[in-house]
UniProtKB/TrEMBL annotation:
Species this protein is from: Gracilinema caldarium (strain ATCC 51460 / DSM 7334 / H1) (Treponema caldarium)
Domain of life: Bacteria
Keyword Protein transport tagged: no
Residues involved in NAD(+) binding: Y165, Q227, N250
This enzyme's EC code(s): 1.1.1.23
Recorded GO MF terms: histidinol dehydrogenase activity; metal ion binding; NAD binding
Name the UniProt record assigns to this protein: Histidinol dehydrogenase
Gene3D superfamilies recorded: 1.20.5.1300, Nitrogenase molybdenum iron protein domain (3.40.50.1980)
Family assignment from sequence similarity: Belongs to the histidinol dehydrogenase family.
UniProt xrefs under NCBIfam families: hisD
Cofactor section: Zn(2+)
GO biological process, one term: L-histidine biosynthetic process
Binding-site list for substrate: T273, Q295, H298, H364, D397, E452, H457
Entry annotation: catalytic residues: E363, H364
């Protein structure tokens, strides 16, 4: 765990990113300041890796392995998928497609054996659907007459087929099924498929199957890893070619999505998860610690950070982290995350805290403040914003309706999280009739074409005179 003063943040952050300039201002001259009284103080944290931040050897090793997998699937189809499953997964099923009857049966079994989980999943699904439907309303078709004879339009067209990748490694991400499938179906996607690795019996996790039936998936395939992404990008004898692939995964899945973008659409390349909390003097150290651990338990590479106004609160948070870790079932993972990347920053003013938050561009940004609304509008770089101490990030992860598939590794500077928009193409149209507006636009096009030296363009415009 590292504690530093806000005045030292720029130099600290810059050092994590290979000395590259920060998105704002000049880096401070001073280096990181660790409080001597911090019992858990450790070496500076490692930045959440992005592809360009990886060392060339690490990036090359991952990409080389993934490129080999992609080529194997492209040329070998189902046979390659079975061979790769035998190498990397818990089993290699002969039949890759899972009958939807198995998913419906899994849902019935879940309702019979774990009614509370089934009820929670239904509540989450309802909230996700309502929110997605509200988002869908922002996408409208229109045609407008700009001038006489000149009509421009927009259509919002869903993709025909999309895939949701659902990991089942360290934890089976049941909620990811709902977060991917429901927005796609609300968007109007014709066919939605699930890709998830097989367990020992040749089927994905039963709870993933149950969630797929509940969310309304059309087809399910017991295929995992980078090979699943490649299968959906190219199509195989069993797996249909998809227009878009969304969902989280390990570094091999992320690399496959990045390398195949263009062959297939993607949501974004996800890295390790992260949370940043801005707290004031009214904040509960115990709640801060709880929310940091909820993020840290995901993965040793997860990043849990907090901005606090005093050394006293910093020490209280650290003490509550130690106390909670001693009783946490996932303590080994969470402790590894905090040791590698836990960060407490002591700020002097909220302006300072806002500036740092906008620089970090966290996946999740929580406001543990007495009056969080007063600064919410000044925060611009985040995946999701959680306003007030009751708005725990875990609610966004599971049940509140907003999506949990969010930009990581600072990419919230330029994109938002998964939504219906990832399954919709916004396309435009032009319709012309004789009229003054058409004539002026036609002549202007010919003039611009001549200036650019594109004679064919000029002739195309002039021939309509």
């Amino acid at each position: 765990m590292t504690i530093l003063k806000a005045k030292d943040f720029d130099a600290y952050w810059n050092s994590l990113h290979g000395g590259r300039p920060l998105p704002r201002g000049d880096a401070a001259a001073a280096g990181p300041a660790h409080l001597a009284s911090s019992p858990a103080a450790a070496a500076p944290v490692a930045a959440s890796p992005s592809p360009e931040a990886l060392s060339p050897s690490a990036a090359t090793a991952t990409d080389t392995a993934v490129l080999a997998i992609i080529e194997a699937v492209r040329s070998g189809g189902d046979r390659a998928l079975r061979d790769l499953a035998a190498r990397f997964d818990r089993s290699s099923p002969e039949r890759l497609e899972v009958p939807m009857t198995a998913a419906r049966r899994a849902l019935e079994e879940l309702e019979a054996t774990d009614a509370s989980l089934a009820t929670a999943l239904r509540l989450a699904a309802d909230h996700i659907r309502v929110f997605a439907e509200l988002q869908k309303k922002q996408f409208t078709d229109f045609e407008v007459k700009l001038e006489p004879g000149l009509f421009t339009g927009q259509r919002c067209i869903p993709v025909e087929r999309a895939a949701v990748y659902v990991p089942a490694g360290r934890f089976p991400l049941i909620s990811t099924v709902l977060m991917g499938v429901i927005p796609a179906k609300v968007a109007g996607v014709d066919e939605l498929i699930i890709l998830s690795p097989p367990l020992e019996d040749g089927l994905p996790d039963r709870r993933i199957l149950a969630a797929a039936a509940l969310a309304g998936a059309d087809r399910i395939f017991a295929v995992g890893g980078a090979q699943a992404v490649a299968a959906a990008a190219f199509g195989t004898e069993s797996v249909p070619r998809c227009d878009v692939i969304v969902g989280p995964g390990n570094k091999y899945v992320a690399a496959a999505k990045r390398l195949l973008f263009g062959q297939v659409g993607i949501d974004f390349v996800a890295g390790p998860t992260d949370v940043l909390i801005i707290a004031d003097g009214t904040a509960s150290a115990d709640l801060i610690a709880a929310d940091m651990l909820a993020q840290a338990e995901h993965d040793p590479d997860a990043r849990a950070r907090v901005l606090v106004p005093s050394e006293a609160l910093a020490q209280a948070v650290q003490a509550d982290l130690v106390r909670r870790l001693s009783k946490l079932g996932t303590a080994d993972t969470a402790r590894a995350s905090l040791d590698a990347g836990g960060l407490i920053i002591i700020y002097e003013t909220l302006d300072e805290a806002i500036q740092i938050a906008n620089t970090i561009a966290p996946e999740h940004l929580e406001l543990h403040l007495a009056e969080p609304e007063t600064i919410a509008g000044r925060l611009r770089n985040y995946g999701s914003l959680f306003i007030g101490h009751l708005a725990a990030e875990v609610l966004g992860d599971y049940s509140a309706g907003i999506n949990h598939t969010l930009p990581t590794s600072g990419t919230a500077r330029f994109t938002g999280g998964l939504s219906v928009r990832h399954f919709i193409k916004t396309v435009t149209s032009l319709r012309c009739t004789p009229g003054s507006g058409f004539e002026t636009s036609r002549k202007a096009a010919a003039i611009i074409a001549r200036a650019e030296g594109l004679d064919g363009h000029r002739q195309s415009a002039e021939s309509r005179g």
